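Work package 3, deliverable 3.1, input record:
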Amino acid sequence: MIQILSLLWIFFKIGACTFGGGYAMVELVAEQVTSHGWMEMQEIIDFIAISESTPGPIAINMATYVGFNVAGIPGAVAATTGVVLPSLIVIMIIARFYKKFIANRYVAGAMRGLRPAAIALISAAMVSVGTEVFLPFGFSVQSILTFDMLFSVITLGLCLFLVYKKAKPHFILLASAACGLLWGSIQNLFM
Amino acid sequence: MSKKKLSTYGELFWSFFKIGALTFGGGAAMISFMSAEAVDKKKWITDEEMLDIVTVAESTPGPIAVNTATFVGYRAAGSLGSVIATLGTVIPPFIIMTFIAAFFDFFKSIEAINYMFMGVRVGVIALILKAFLKMFSSCKKDAFFYIMFVLAFCAVAVFGAGTIPVIISAGLIGVGSVLVSLRRDKK
């Protein structure tokens, strides 16, 4: 029960502090979920890929998945409710005078501060995911000079090229999955 | 409750259920789907209102897709409408994710899937980069923007500050900047 309440509360906080798209949320979720020991960073990364390849807003996918992993269906319900509540409450309050809300200079001012911070959180998420993928055992010669590292660098190169070519997210995921499959099979055959 | 109102609730639920079940990749994809449904087909709101709603959704807390659904639901059928539209958007991904979460350990026991995830984890870095580039290029960049960006990034990624305090301070600093410029204008 305590776990369910804390899922509700933590996802409420996450919903209330997310400005912008789902990716602005990744760093928040990673921080909260790993500090509670609910999930490992690697699971969160796997989950981002799953979330991107299933329908629905990433935020909802993320809340449902974490909630279910922690406490089954009641957990999933609690986390999803938590992440949605701030939106519901805020929109219901301002819906009557939303024109004034948009025109309000303090709102505009807050957004002026929040937008760069949200974008900074996305870059911070890139750093934490990158560290986890490339240096899972910390920074040392042993972890850099490996075949896995070679594989990761080649795959990243391909993915960056696809981003540059403005490929769709699904295509990037498929291409990187194919790279992983290829690499795994090569390892299986020769090593 | 009148019959007409009931049928609006039903339509709202179904429209947003479809949106939740069929749009991939969240936010932007969803909004174009929503405006096709709520503006063109059902005429719950006008084109101009839709634009306002998106502006509001971007400057209120919460995922953009959920904010937009809540607001469209409210405009179409009041408070209960917003709850119904939100439920419609949330239920399909909720069901799908619950299934995936329940069977994930099984999937992971398949070797080929493990290999794929090895690659996909690298792909996720590229996805985040893509989201970053999109947001970065879509906003107005002045000195204040860059200072805030660097401060927030360093606080979280270098000094390990909590993300929630950073977000709250960023909002307060933004409001503070308005107060400062107002005072300057008075003088």
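Chain A has a mean pLDDT of 87.
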